[in-house]
Each structure stands twice: as C-alpha cells, then as structure tokens.
Design a protein that fits this description.
Elements lengths: L4 H24 L2 H4 L9 H19 L5 H11 L23 H11 L3 H10 L4 H13 L7 H9 L3 H13 L5 H15 L1 H16 L6 H4 L5 H22 L6 H35 L9 H17 L3 E2 L1 H15 L9 H12 L4 H13 L9 H19 L5 E2 L3 H32 L4 H10 L1 H4 L5 H12 L2 H13 L4 H17 L4 H33 L3 H5 L4 H8 L1 H20 L1
Antiparallel strand pairs: 1-2
Helix pairs in contact: 7-10, 8-10, 8-11, 9-10, 9-13, 10-11, 11-29, 13-14, 13-29, 14-28, 14-29, 15-20, 16-19, 17-18, 18-19, 20-21, 20-26, 21-23, 21-26, 23-26, 24-26, 25-26
C-alpha cells in the first residue's frame, strides 16, 4: 500500500520514538526488554537520504501530469527558500555530462537535486534542538493554516490573551473543555502553523479592539493634534496594551514591559505619521503629473476678477441705501474713537469726506477701500494713521460682507443676487489674502521677521472672524509651528548674531576670542545660529505665503490641492490603524526578541 509523504514522515517519527523508548527501558534494566530485539539503528545520513529519495519519487509522480510551464513555476516557487533554509551538505550541481543533450542534462539535474522543502524539514527535525524540531513538525503536519482557524489566533490578539486565560478558568471550574495551559499551547501551535497569516490576524485583532473604543483611547483623543501629543498618547496607550497583554498571558508585569509598550506605541505613531505624510506627498505629486491640481489665482488676477464682479453687480442694479451708507459712516467714526484727529491724520479725514459724498455702489466702496491700502505705510508700525486706516478698511469689509436687505437696493433680483454673491466671495478672498501679504511685508521690515510673522498671523482669528476651518488651521500652524520648526527657530534666536552694531560687535568679539584662546569651534556657533535663523525665516515666510494661497483659492484644502486621490484618502483614514498594527506587532514580538 502506498503511503502519502505525511504518513511516511509520521511512521519515521513513530519508529524513532519506539527505538528511544526501547533504549530507555533497556537502561532501566527491565527483564522483558532485555530479550526484545531492537530494530536496526538507522544512521541520520541514511534517514536523510531515504527522505530525499522519497521526496524525489513523489515529486516526479506529482509532476507527471503537469505541463512544462507548470513544472517550471513549481520549481521557481520551491527555489524561493532563504540561504539558511537550504541543505548545503548535498551537491548543488552534478558534474558536467558532455555526452548528454542540454534538455537531458537539465532533466537529470532536476531528478538528482534534493527537494529544498524536504531538505529544510529534515535539517530542522535532526538539528537536535527540541524547539526547532517541534516547530517544524507542527508546520509540516498542518501546512498552511485553514481560514477557519484564523479566529483562534485573532481572538488571542483581540482580547490581549484574556480569551485563553478566562476560557481556561471556566473549563477548569466546570471540568469541560481544555485547561488554560492546553488552550495556550493550542494557540501557540496555531500561531506556528499560520506563520505570517496568524501574526497578521493577531495584530489586526488587537488593533481593531483599540479602534472599536470611540473616543476613549489616548490616541483617539488627540488624533487631530500635533505629533508631540500623538507620540505621548501612543506611549501611554502602548504601555497599557503591554500591561494587558502580560496579564492576559498570566505573566508578571514589570518596568521593562511598560517601557517596551511605551516605546512601541510612540514608535508606531511616529512611523505611521511619516508614512501618512509620504503617502500624501506621493498622491499630490501624482495629481501634479496628471494636471489635477487647481490653478490658484494670483493676487492681481483676483483683484481684476473682483473688480469685474463689482462692475457686474453695479450693472445688475445693486446699490446701497442712504440709510446703509449713513450707518457705515457712523460705525467708522465709532471705530476711530478719540484717537482720530484730522490735523494729525489728514488721510483719514479725506476718506471720511469721501464716504460722505460717495456714490452708493460696490465699485465706489471698493475704490475707497483701495485708498486705505495704498496710504498704509508698512514701515511705520506705531504710526497712528496706519492703525486708523486698518480700522476703516476692516469696517468697510464687514459692511460689504454683512449688508442686509435694509442696506441694499437691487434691480433685477436674480441677477443682482448672483452678482452680489460672486462679488462678496471674491472680495472676501482678496481681502483676507491682502491682509496676510501685508503682514509678510511688514514683518520683513522688523528685526525678527520670523517672530513678527508668527505673532501677527496668530492674531488673525480675532481680527478676521470669517476665516474658514482650513484657513484657521493653517493660521494656527504658522503661529504655533511644529516641533522641528520651533527647534530651528529657538536655535536661530539663541545663537545668531544680533542685528545692529552692538549685537554684531558682540558676536564678532566672541568668535575672535574663541579662536585666540584655542577653541576654533567657538567661531562655528554664530555661523550655525545665522544659518538656523535664515532657515527659520524662510520656512515661516513660506508657510504664510501658503496661507495666502489657500485664501485666494477659496479657503478650503480641496480648492487648493484638488480632490484627494486614493493614497491621500488612505493617509487620512488609515494612519491610526497602521500605528496600532505596528504597536501590537512590536509588543507581541518583544518577548521572542528578548530571548
């Protein structure tokens, strides 16, 4: 009767166990064992050759009905073993046979070469290491783990090991089912059989458990916060998961376990954040290559479009009532307050006079507002006229954007309403972008452009209540900075030579004294500080310009960057899942790596 290869292996192992038991009984001096004829001992090399021959025979039988390309594919799959899995004790290539045809030589080489899988299995079983032999037997007996057994490993990860522990306690109390040790051993065997599939199931089970707790885990509470907050939350969550895993597997929790969990959680957040940014950048690059990124209008283009929209609204019959114009004038005077003096601020006086005699149209108000921009001097930070001009400009903007029915006279209602909405939208985009550009220009004339830019943009949410959520987030990003940008900024502030004759002289004296005293590295400190300051100024300016672009585009991230493609959607929705997968995987493998 022909046996399958699995049956042959089981028979070989059974014979080996019988021989070992006979030898042990003989050593103990049992009379009935002394007269039993033991089976002839088989040398390891002979046993290996037997397995090799059996594998080759069954391989030829299996390939008898295969097509040539199917045989080639099978050989390629079998050749995918790592170098340490191959049996290098066997000859790797037969001697050349000059009398054979090439196809005959290839066939002979295939017939005479050892099966890599059988060679690897034999090497593991005969290695003398019980753990390696047990793992090889488990994998060989069951092969790949069936799909229905995946929940066995996934449940262990899903409950951080508590499934086996609690189930074992229940079985021991009722006398029904496997004990804790048996359940744990079954899970370990299933994990060995499943290989990467079981590891993935266990990691996914733990990650899904954490993701199923809406708003309760530390990382979910700070998912939209900055990286530093997410790293800290990841460390806390990792330490808690590590402690639960140790308790679930009935192991003692010590400081090393908590530290391992904290590092795994923080590291998972860091790697996931980097991967998310990389995926977002790749997705944006793909959109640029395919022309899917919207074109953002320049400030001049937006001004021309705004002027055309105002003219269109005027032609549609949109006008302000005299009551509305009087209310605007009164609100401007209230905003100026006692700080206004026509003799000290004649430009403001001219604007108030023009408001009294203005034609109540959108175009006229736009022209008056343009005067406040042209007469504003960015170099005169503390000039009273500058502050008053800003107040007048802000009041005109709020009046146009919030004018109600009592303030407007419309001709053709539908056309007027459409023209007014378009004009207001373009007006708001231009007005907000101009405000940011004014800040950039004014900050460039300050001693610390980076700090001035961040300070003034940080005040925008108070002065511009019409910011969109994306604009508000971008403004906060400029004002608060990130961990890396703040580090560069602080380095530049601390080490860069200060502006002015006194600051430059002090920095130069420090560098020269360092060189003369034998410390040439002292000269590098001002250079490092100057470089950090230049880099910080450039990054902050670019971030502010990006905010202005966002405002000109329409105030939404999609309007600036285009609709998210697949990599960008994955970067936004799967970052937390990736972080938890990395964390649970690191915690699961930590005990094995420590041994």
């Amino acid at each position: 009767m022909d046996l399958t290869i699995e049956q042959e292996k089981a028979l070989i192992l059974a014979r080996a166990r019988a021989r070992r038991q006979a030898a042990e009984a003989q050593a103990e001096g049992k009379p009935w064992e002394r007269f039993r004829q033991p089976e002839a001992a088989v040398a390891p090399d002979q046993e290996r050759e037997r397995l090799m021959a059996l594998a080759r025979a069954r391989k030829r039988a299996a390939e008898a009905g295969l097509k040539p390309w199917e045989i080639a594919r099978r050989q390629q799959e079998e050749a995918g073993l790592k170098p340490w899995q191959r049996d290098w004790s066997q000859p790797q290539a037969p001697e050349a046979q000059p009398d054979l045809k090439p196809w005959e030589l290839a066939r002979k080489q295939a017939e005479g070469s050892p099966d890599p899988a059988i060679a690897a299995y034999t090497a593991e079983v005969m290695s003398g290491d019980p753990a390696r032999a047990q793992a090889a037997v488990v994998k060989d007996e069951f092969g790949r783990m069936p799909a229905w057994q995946w929940p066995l490993v996934a449940a262990d990860g899903l409950t951080f090991g508590l499934a086996d522990t609690l189930g074992g306690y229940l079985s021991e109390a009722t006398g029904i089912g496997p004990t804790r040790e048996e359940r744990r051993r079954n899970t370990e065997d299933a994990r060995s059989r499943s290989g990467l599939a079981g590891t993935a199931a266990e990691m996914l089970g733990g990650a899904k458990t954490l993701g199923a707790l809406p708003g309760t885990s530390p990382t979910q509470m700070v998912r939209n916060k900055r990286l530093a907050a997410r790293l800290a939350a990841g460390g806390v969550e990792g330490a808690a998961v590590s402690a639960l895993t140790e308790l679930g597997h009935e192991r003692e929790v010590d400081g090393t376990d908590l530290l391992t969990g904290a590092v795994s959680g923080a590291g998972g957040q860091a790697v996931a954040s980097g991967a998310s940014k990389l995926a977002d950048a790749l997705g944006q690059g793909a959109k640029r290559l395919t022309g899917q990124v919207p074109k953002v209008p320049s400030q001049d283009e937006l001004r021309r479009a705004s002027a055309a929209a105002f003219k269109e609204a005027d032609e549609a019959g949109v006008m302000f009532t005299r009551k509305g114009m009087d209310r605007l004038k009164a609100e401007v005077v209230d905003d100026l307050g006692t700080a206004y003096d026509p003799d000290i601020s004649p430009k403001v006086a001219k604007i108030l006079k023009r408001l009294d005699n203005a034609t109540p149209t959108l175009t006229e108000l736009k022209n008056i507002r343009q005067l406040t921009r042209e007469w504003y001097d960015p170099t005169g930070k503390k000039d009273i006229t500058n502050r008053l001009l800003l107040k007048v400009r802000g009041r005109i903007d709020r009046f146009i954007e919030g004018a109600g029915e009592d303030d407007l006279i419309s001709g053709d209602n539908k056309a007027a309403a459409a023209a007014l909405d378009k004009a207001r939208s373009l007006w708001a985009r231009a007005e907000k972008s101009e405000r940011v550009e004014d800040i950039i220009e004014e900050a460039a004339n300050r001693q610390g452009p980076e700090r001035a830019t961040r300070t003034m943009i940080g005040k925008l949410p108070e002065r511009m209540p019409n910011l969109t959520p994306d604009e508000l987030a971008s403004a906060n990003d400029v004002a608060q900075g990130t961990l890396g940008r703040n580090l560069v900024a602080y380095t530049g502030r601390a080490l860069a030579p200060q502006s002015g004759a006194l600051g430059t002289a002090a920095s130069t004296a420090a560098a020269v004294s360092g060189l003369l005293s034998g410390y040439p590295s002292a000269a590098a400190v001002p250079v490092l500080g100057a470089g950090a300051k230049m880099l910080s100024d450039r990054i902050t300016k670019r971030k502010a310009q990006r905010l202005a672009e966002l405002m000109r585009a329409g105030g939404t991230r999609e309007a600036l960057r285009g609709p998210d493609n697949l990599p960008q959607r994955l970067a936004k929705t799967k970052r937390d899942l990736l972080a938890r997968l990395l964390m649970t995987g690191a915690i699961s493998y930590a005990p094995a790596l420590a041994q």
